[in-house]
Amino acid sequence: MSLKDLLFGRPLASHEEGEQRVGPVAGIPMLGLDALSSAAYGPEAAMTLLIPLGAAGLGYIGPISTVIIILLLIVYLSYRQTIAAYPTGGGSYTVARQNLGLFAGLLAAAALLLDYVLVVAVGISAGVGALVSAVPSLQPHTLLLCLVILALIALVNLRGVRESGLAFVVPTYLFVGCLFVVLGVGLMNTWLANGHPVPVVIPPVVPAATTAVSWWIVLRAFASGCTAMTGVEAVSNGVSAFREPAARNAQRTLSAIIGILVVLLAGIAYLSRAYHIGATEPGVTGRPRRHARAYRSHAL
Length: 300
Fold this sequence. Notes:
Blueprint: H1 3-8, H2 24-37, H3 42-49, H4 61-85, H5 92-100, H6 102-134, H7 142-157, H8 161-167, H9 169-192, H10 215-225, H11 234-237, H12 246-274, H13 292-299
Helix pairs in contact: 2-8, 2-9, 2-12, 3-10, 4-10, 4-12, 5-6, 6-7, 9-12
């Protein structure tokens, strides 16, 4: 195999185009990876901004998550209509360009380019942050790990949308499955304890409040938490990657992605409140180093 084929995959004949299209099962990890993975850092981003409120900040994560979920559902309904109106694929750029003009289209395109860069940066740094919290000895190699993962993602994506998406099928479903198990166990323990579960590992004590509640802090937390909506547009852009009926399969895929994401966000917000788990300053866990892995696993 030549280096070119290794990087970009083998050349495909025109008659093989139909074989490259996928259904909802493969479409979820292929086009929903960004959206689903944002559940791992969206709620944390909101809670980080609530640290100055101390224990009182835990009471705001539920309402903030509820508003984010409502906004997410509004965006979902909008993109369902977009998929029906543009069955060959149409995201923000296409819709803005055709309905609002060239300037609006370019503005949407510029926003999307910034969004794509930030998605990769935030996703990789959040993942490496979780890895380092589980294995503290890796902390000196944080930057190197981020760069290696970035290189691997770039290498995989060079092979095209379908092949790169299929490469993440197992990790995506494993991630979602693990989170569902964690949420299921947490909810069961909460209900059995009448809303007051006892954590296996006591989380760090939420620090005392350093400022009063203000709309500015709450709105900043909401804005940071909206990172959980990342990647919702990918399905409407990739309608052509689905087998016929393409638009219908794309809508089913989008519905599944949003449904899973809503459950994850709602479950994380509820259990964070039930277990009194708040964000901590970077590098601070409040527990001895030997308990870092247990705390992180329990907190997730």
